[in-house]
Amino acid sequence: MKGISVDLWRVRVRFAVLCVPYALDYAAGTDSVSDVIAWDLQVASWADQYGLDEVFFAEHHTLGHEPSPAPELMIAAASQQTTRVRLGALGHLVPYHNPVALAHRMIWLDHLTGGRYVAGVAPGAFPTDAQLFGTGMENARMLAEGLDIIQAIFTKPGPWRIDGRYWTADMPEFSSSVNGPHLKPLQRPHPEILMTGMQPKSPTLAEAGKRGHSPVSQEVSSQTLIRHWETYAEAAEAAGHTPRRSSWRVTRDVWLADTDEEAREQVLSGPLGEVWSKVNLPLFKDLGLGSLLAGADVPEHDLCLEWLVDNFFLIGSPETVAKKIEAFHAEVGGFGTLLMGAPGRGREPDTYRRSLELLGSEVAPRLSHLVAGS
Asked: Which ranges does the record mark as transmembrane (predicted)?
C-alpha cells in the first residue's frame, strides 16, 4: 500500500467491530485483565476469519467496565494474529498523550500492520479520565492542537516548529550524522484519520469535516445521524473538501442467529443486553440523552431494552438483518461502514462467534449491491 491512496468510493458497505471493551465481569471481579485482553483479541481473530473489514479498540483509563488504556498495544497484538482485517483505534485520546510521541507510535503501527492501521482520534468524553490527567475543560482545544502536530509529523519535512498552548514540537532538518529524522507513514499521505461525534451538531464532526478527516457517528437515532452528516458535510464543503459517504462510519449494534427468535433471546439474556440494561441505557437517561437513541417520538420512560431490541438494534436471522441494514442505510441516506460494539464474553461465547460468522458469510453477500451513496 506504500504510496497508494485507496479510493473507497462506490465500494460495497463494509462491516466493523469496536472492542470497547464491555467488561462487566471484570468490573465485578470475576474476570482478570488477561481475560479482557484475550477476549478482544479473539474477537479480532474471528472478524478476520469471517471476512469483516475493520476492528477498532477504544481508549479509557478510569472505567472499570470498559478497561482499555492502550489501544496501540491491542492493535499491535491483533496484527500478529490477523492477516487482512484493518485495525485501528476509536480513538486515541489525544489530550492524554504527547502528540509527538503519539504520532510516531501511529507511524510505527502503520508499518507494523503492513498498512492496515486506521488512526481514530477523540478528545476524551469521560470526566474521570480528564480528572486523572488534569486536562480540565481543555480537551477539545488540546485535540485540535495535537492534531496539528500529528499531521505535520506525518507530512511535513523539517525543519519546522509549532509553539502551541499545550505542546511544543521542534522538528530538526535531516542530518546525515543521525540519518534522520526519518519516520513517515507507510500509507500516503498518512493513515485514514477518524473523528467521532454524538450530538446532532457535533463540534468534533465539524472539525473532522474542516480537516478532511472521516466521520464516525456513535450509536444514536436515524434522525440524529442525518444531522451528523449535514454537520460534517457542511464543514467539509466550507473548507474545500468533498464529503464522501463512503468514508462515514455509523454505529448500530448487530446480532445474528439462525432464527429471529434465537437472536432476540440471545440479546435479551446475554452480554449485549446486559451491558445496555446495566450501563448504557441508564447512562443515556441520567444524562438526559434518551432522545438521541429513540428520537423525539418515543417518551424516555418507554425506552427500555425490549424497545431497543425490537425497534433499534439490527437483530435477527441473516435474511432479517440484511433487510434491516438495507432499510437503515436508505433511511440515513447511505454510509460506508456499519460499526457495531463487541459484547463481553458472557456465558456462551460461541453465540457471538456464530453471529460474526453469519454476518460475514450470509449477510455481507446479500448486501454486495449496497454502496455508500452520494
From this structure: none
